[in-house]
Amino acid sequence: MLGTGAALPDPDRAQSSILITLDNGKNYLFDCGEGSTRQMVRANINPADVGWVFLSHLHYDHICGLPFFVLSSWVFNRDGQLKVYGPRGTRDFVDHSFENGAFKVDIQARAAYGVRQKNIEAVRPLVTEVSPGLIYQDEHVRIYVDLVDHIPAEITDCFGIRLEAEGKVVAFSGDTAPCESMVRLAQDADLLIHECTFPESFLAHRAKSGVGTYSHTSPLELGKIAARAKVKQLVPTHFGHFDSTSPVIKRAAANHLPIDLMGPDMLDEVVRDLRKSYKGPISLAHDLMRIDL
Q1: Smallest Cα–Cα separation from 226: which of 291, 171, 176?
Q2: Where are the domains of the chain?
Q3: How far is residue 209's CA from residue 78's CA, in Å, rounded to a whole number?
Q4: Is 141 within 8 Å of 29 (Cβ atoms)?
Q5: Where do the coiled-coil regions begin and end (predicted)?
Q6: Model pLDDT, residue 203
Q7: What is the mean predicted confidence (pLDDT) over 38-48?
Q8: At a CB cut-off of 8 Å and minimum separation 6, what does 167 contact?
Q9: What are residue 214's phi and psi, to 5 degrees?
Q10: 230 C-beta neighbours (distance < 10 Å), count
């Protein structure tokens, strides 16, 4: 778990990012929010050794770390192109990030050196925009996505993800309100990593305030999803700063969170609500948590 936070710059949590490493050493990255590359290095993973990135949706806290990850991988001597999979709009985002966009000057300057020109393909990710179903397979893994309920569909798709490898299944929700597709994706999974952005009281406050989306899953609803899907282990993640004690976060959140309720005690409420439906193992996500299956 490289990043377990949400949209604000949280001093205790990087933004959404999950790294799955198989026994054969292959690395698959799911979402790439701010801080994910630094966390990768802290976990002793070379960014250049991560060959695949799967983006659940295009909110900035799930993708803004991708340019830094790509450029760092280049400097770390990635061999060949990174493969990026995501919803419609992903290709445009990537095209505007590198040689044709935001980091054009940086890349031109560094590419003047032979060692950087030698692996210039590293800053030319191969993008595949996907639709529901099987989106990637090789001799080691099969990866499926399905639509979930978060960003309005007329803007872009949002996906939940299911990875099958080495006889194990890991499901990841991205961001979503409770929906049937996540029950299907998580069916009998060995591990469900699911957003748990706000407790019930926080979702109700956001719905009234009209600030930001409230298309998220509360602990109460997540427990129901995990129980119905019969998952073997549950890791709630993407905590929306409700546990923060940072005065900066509290000031920034005053418009859309009930800041008088914020603090670590809210994590106890999260577990209590999850336990109303789900009786299996629960591990609340934290940055650099390692889960072995």
Answers
A1: 171
A2: 18-275
A3: 46
A4: no
A5: none
A6: 77
A7: 98
A8: none
A9: -115, 25
A10: 14
131-168 residue pLDDT tens: 999 999 999 999 999 999 999 999 999 999 999 999 99
Output the six-digit token pair for 60.
């900035």
Output the six-digit token pair for 64: 């803004």
User: Is 61 an active-site residue?
Assistant: yes
- List 10, 31, 61, 273, catalytic entry: 61
Contacts of 108 (CB under 8 A, 6+ apart): 99
Structure tokens at 223: 């427990």
**Dihedral (C-alpha) 68, 71, 73, 79: value to the nearest 10 degrees?**
150
Band of residue 47 on the pLDDT scale cut at 50, 70, 90: very high
Tokens describing residue 270:
């999260």
Q: Are 163 and 135 in contact (CB under 8 A)?
A: no
Q: What angle do helix axes 266-275 and 219-229 make, rounded to 10 degrees?
A: 40
Cα radius of gyration (the chain): 19
User: In angstroms, rounded to a whole number, what is the distance separating the alpha carbons of residues 249 and 275?
Assistant: 28
3-state secondary structure of 40: helix
CATH number for domain 18-275, candidates 3.60.15.10, 3.40.50.150, 3.40.1180.10, 3.30.1360.30 = 3.60.15.10
Q: Nearest 5°: phi and psi at 45?
A: -110, 125
pLDDT at 8 exceeding the cut of 60: yes
| pLDDT at 253 exceeding the cut of 90 | no
Summarize the confidence of residues 258-275 as an average pLDDT: 94
164-196 tens-digit pLDDT: 999 999 999 999 999 999 999 999 999 999 999
| C-alpha span between 3 and 19 (Å, rounded) | 10
Residues 48 and 75: their CA atoms lie apart, in Å, by: 9
105 C-beta neighbours (distance < 10 Å), count: 8
Once rounded to an integer, what is the mean pLDDT over residues 190-215?
A: 82
